[in-house]
Specification:
It holds the Pfam family Glyco_hydro_100. Belongs to the glycosyl hydrolase 100 family. This is Alkaline/neutral invertase. The protein is mainly alpha-helical. It is 40% helix and 8% strand. It is built from 20 helices and 15 strands. The chain has a three-stranded antiparallel β-sheet. The protein has a two-stranded antiparallel ribbon with strand order 1-2. The chain has a two-stranded antiparallel ribbon with strand order 4-5. α5 runs antiparallel to α6. The radius of gyration is 23 Å and the shape is globular. The two termini are 39 Å apart. Bound molecules: alpha-D-glucopyranose. Alpha-D-glucopyranose (GLC) binds next to α4.
Length: 577
């Protein structure tokens, strides 16, 4: 309450007036019924597990006061945007009347990373690291990396670059994509693109990579999902639905959906993926049904549902999405969820069960449960595990997947709370000295050799193998706000603030506690910068959350009776639509 109180006092004492007409947060003109209603957030769901009262119990009142206070304040926004440049207090724990000094530096660094095509801003490069000899592909605009940049600009009232980016990538989607003699699916979105400037001819050319140049030659499954999620964020933030409704965007959405909703040999509603197809773009044993992709898949489906027109072409997809969401949420909430009780159940599983009555459906052998998970699992808390497939459960924690599960409401309110409980209970392991571990724990020795193929970049507690990635801060912050626990985000942001600028915005940190700048980490990594700014702005103005969050869909209530899942549950279309 202290901060909010101080802010309010400041308003009345100094008699500040609203600095002109400026919007706070996102428009909510989409007819999607998924708006985040902040007034409903204080209704904390009851957990079956007894939870201790954390210091966050006070948080939502505090947040709603903060929103009101911010109607009169600008604080974290960068000059150059539509927001006024009025440099006024930010409610940081340090001193509520001064924005943190690194905010201005962050904005400057973010603006430096902007890429122009024919004079128009179209994205931000992955890293602006002059000191690094090896540029590799860090001079490109990555779709996934641009998301936090886009959110920062949207929150700052600068939607233009985001629109340009969405249109440019849509145009690139239309390219014919080949790897050797094989043609990729039409809907694949690029992993990254580059603008080639020819100073003599004065021309700009776009060059895209769909995985055909990427290390490992894997197509980015996440790109299309991020594109849909960003299109919704743009629409919500600007109130301009004409872009999403344009025939080009509608087609783009449908092409992405065609790739992931087509029928095949699948027995699960989850999406089968190759290793390296997401943010973790090297071999890390995530092949199969990785949580990172399943959560993004779910969020993209729900986002698409809010934007697809119910015309002759869109209608069919709407029906497919509704069916898939129903099955996917059941599958994920039931089989990917792990808490103390569930772990104990798996530990006692019988094996070789045949027929529909099987409890251990995937024939997971209890001996395959790794030792670490028994100690790691708190009595209070839980999470979505990394992967579930026949006789295989990857018990590792993946931060992005769990945060996106909360934001998309793939997680039930109880599960969302339990994930936050876990983060609190296992703070040292999952956050340590730098938020946030991309995966936990690291794989080592023989397992590292087998799983990563002896990858020298992914040694234990480095990079994708248990490294700490500052970009994940924005996802954590959003999840904290959604679950009414901003205090957790504040703690994490303070940790990041103490290092990021000083260390020149590294891509990742290494070590069990995330204390060391990553072995091969780039400096001035754009999404580390943007992720920090987005976290700050969201915490200051929680109504921004609506851009990246979808409310729970009551029609997707979990059916927890495991042995009955083979029956086909009926779908209440009208409730979802
Ligand atoms: C690395 C990361 C990937 C990111 C890219 C550009 O390859 O693993 O997630 O998109 O760098 O920053």
């Amino acid at each position: 309450m202290r901060e909010a109180f101080l802010l309010l006092t400041a308003i009345s004492m100094n008699g500040f007036k609203e600095p002109g007409m400026r919007k706070v947060g996102s428009y909510s003109s989409m007819a999607d019924g998924d708006d985040l209603d902040l007034s409903r957030l204080p209704d904390r769901p009851k957990l079956p597990i007894e939870r201790q009262r954390s210091c966050d119990e006070r948080s939502m009142n505090e947040l709603s006061i903060n929103v009101r206070a911010l109607e009169s304040f600008d604080s974290l926004y960068s000059p150059g945007g539509m927001r006024s440049g009025f440099s006024t207090p930010a409610s940081t724990a340090r001193n509520p009347f001064e924005p943190h000094p690194i905010i201005a530096e962050a904005w400057e660094a973010l603006r430096r990373s902007i890429v122009y095509f024919k004079g128009e801003p179209v994205g931000t490069i992955a890293a602006y690291d002059h000191a690094s000899e090896e540029v590799l592909n860090y001079d490109q605009v990555f779709v996934r990396d641009f998301v936090p940049s886009a959110l920062a600009f949207l929150m700052n009232g600068e939607p233009e670059m985001v629109k340009n980016f969405l249109l440019k990538t849509l145009y690139l989607q239309g390219w014919e994509k080949r790897i050797d003699r094989f043609k990729l699916g039409e809907g694949v979105m690029p992993a990254s693109f580059k603008v080639l400037h020819d100073p003599v001819r004065k021309t700009d050319t776009l060059v895209a990579d769909f995985g055909e140049s990427a290390i490992g030659r894997v197509a980015p499954v996440d790109s299309g999902f991020w594109w849909i999620i960003l299109l919704r964020a743009y629409t919500k933030s600007t109130g301009d639905s004409s872009l999403a409704e344009s025939p080009e965007c509608q087609k783009g959405i449908r092409l992405i959906l065609t790739l992931c909703l087509s029928e095949g040999f699948d027995t699960f509603p989850t999406l089968l993926c190759a290793d390296g197809c997401s943010m973790i773009d090297r071999r890390m044993g995530i092949y199969g049904y990785p949580i990172e992709i399943q959560a993004l898949f779910f969020m993209a489906l729900r986002s698409a549902l809010t934007m697809l027109k119910h015309d002759s072409e869109g209608k069919e997809f709407v029906e497919l999405i509704v069916k898939r969401l129903h099955a996917l949420s059941y599958h994920m909430r039931t089989y990917f969820w792990l808490d103390f009780q569930q772990l104990n159940d798996i530990y006692r599983y019988k094996t070789e069960e045949y027929s529909h009555t099987a409890v251990n459906k995937f024939n997971v052998i209890p001996d395959s449960i790794p030792d670490w998970v028994f100690d790691f699992m708190p009595t209070r808390g839980g999470y979505f595990i990394g992967n579930v497939s026949p006789a295989r459960m990857d018990f590792r924690w993946f931060a992005l997947g769990n945060c996106v599960a909360i934001l998309s409401s793939l997680a039930t309110p109880e599960q969302s709370m339990a994930v936050m409980d876990l983060i609190e209970e296992r703070w040292e392991e999952l956050v340590g000295e730098m938020p946030l571990k991309v995966t936990y724990p690291a794989i080592e020795s023989h397992e590292w050799r087998i799983v990563t193929g002896c990858d020298p970049k992914n040694t234990r507690w480095s990079y994708h193998n248990g490294g700490s990635w500052p970009v994940l801060l924005w996802l954590l912050t959003a999840a904290c706000i959604k679950t009414g626990r901003p205090q957790i985000a504040r703690r994490a942001i303070e940790l990041a603030e103490s290092r990021l600028l000083k260390d020149s915005w590294p891509e990742y940190y290494d070590g069990k506690l995330g204390r060391y700048i990553g072995k091969q980490a780039r400096k001035f990594q754009t999404w580390s910068i943007a992720g920090y700014l987005v976290s700050k702005m969201m915490l200051e103005d929680p109504s921004h959350l609506g851009m990246v969050s979808l409310e729970e869909d009551k029609a997707m209530k979990p059916l927890i009776k495991r042995s009955a899942s083979w029956t086909c549950p009926e779908i209440s279309l009208d409730l979802i639509l």
